[in-house]
Task: structure prediction
Amino acid sequence: MSIDFNKIQTPCYVIDEVLLRNNLELIKKVKESAGIDILVAFKAFSNWGVFPVFKEYGFGASASSTNEARLAFEELGVKAHTHSPAFEDKDFRDILKYSSHISFNSINQLQKYFSIAKKKGVSIGLRVNPEFSDSPHDIYNPCKPGSRFGVTVEQLGDALPQGIEGLHFHTLFEADSFALEKLLEVFLAKFGRFLPKLKWVNMGGGHLITKRNYDVQHLIGILIAFKNKYHVEIILEPGSAFTYQTGYLVSTVLDIVENHDIKTAILDVSFTCHMPDCLEMPYKPVILGATDERAGMPTYRMGGISCLAGDFMGNWSFDKELKPGDKIIFDDMIHYTTVKTTMFNGVAHPSIGIWNEKSGFRLIREFNYQDYKNRLS
Ligand SMILES: Cc1ncc(COP(=O)(O)O)c(C=O)c1O
Result:
């Protein structure tokens, strides 16, 4: 059985539970085989309606705000490992309540909150910046000169501040295990001398473990070797890997317009509101049943429903002409989508549903005028 998209009212994000469970199984295998801890980075996906599925696999959570830490505590039943570029006095009590580990981004922040965090029994870490990243996109590179993330080796000097139990770094983007291997060489050259004093090292996210051809055995080998040599707990906190290629954004063509020989299919979804990474990165998503532009085939831009002039992407070719009512199904639209959406222009927010072979499609959440109104005042 496969998803019957024709029966799904659009716009709608559809999570494929079968694909999701495949990812969760694989990540669990890495966790167990390497003997490390793997956290779900909530920034990529935090649809708590699906947490009962996640709970079956026993992952922790990585949070970047009080809200994410609280969600981890209340809905996933775990205390989060929390990092933020800066914490605020007004939130810090809650951060402590919902976090087992906190990684500070600067020595200033560490000094400001060290005593209270220590008193509450939180494991304290420092984010370091190894000044090495494989990211081909500047917007996802936290290691560019001038970066606001983490303490560099020069800033740290010779001694690790007292009481630090872990180091945290995040520099990779949709990377393979070989990029991690290179990163670890740089990390060790710069920060390796501090490892004998530490309990844990958090190697951040950007490990796209669930991508086809990711060399999982190589990753496991690297992690085991690191652990055996340096005797520290290893933590990974991937976001994308958990929900990579696990579902769709299903939309409908509302109209076809033409200007200077360019045909645009106007959809009931928006790139800027519902698929913002496509414009930010930018990248062109896959549409089921379509190809990249091919001469001689009906070819269209996809146009968003917002008023933003740049709310479109192109071009895709189809077997036949598109018409109003046709479904357009964007692939791989679960990570960094539902967590980032806006209601700009008051556009309808896609509902969220989950599909599995046994129960078929189940709607988890619909959005309405009150959701739009409640964000405003
Ligand atoms: C500190 C930190 N950890 C984890 C992640 C998750 O990264 P990814 O979703 O690429 O695995 C990010 C992403 O920005 C991050 O900033």
The chain has a mean pLDDT of 97. The pocket of pyridoxal-5'-phosphate is lined by residues 41, 43-44, 62, 83, 170, 173, 204-206, 237-241 (CB under 6 Å). Residues 17-34 form the longest helix (18 residues).
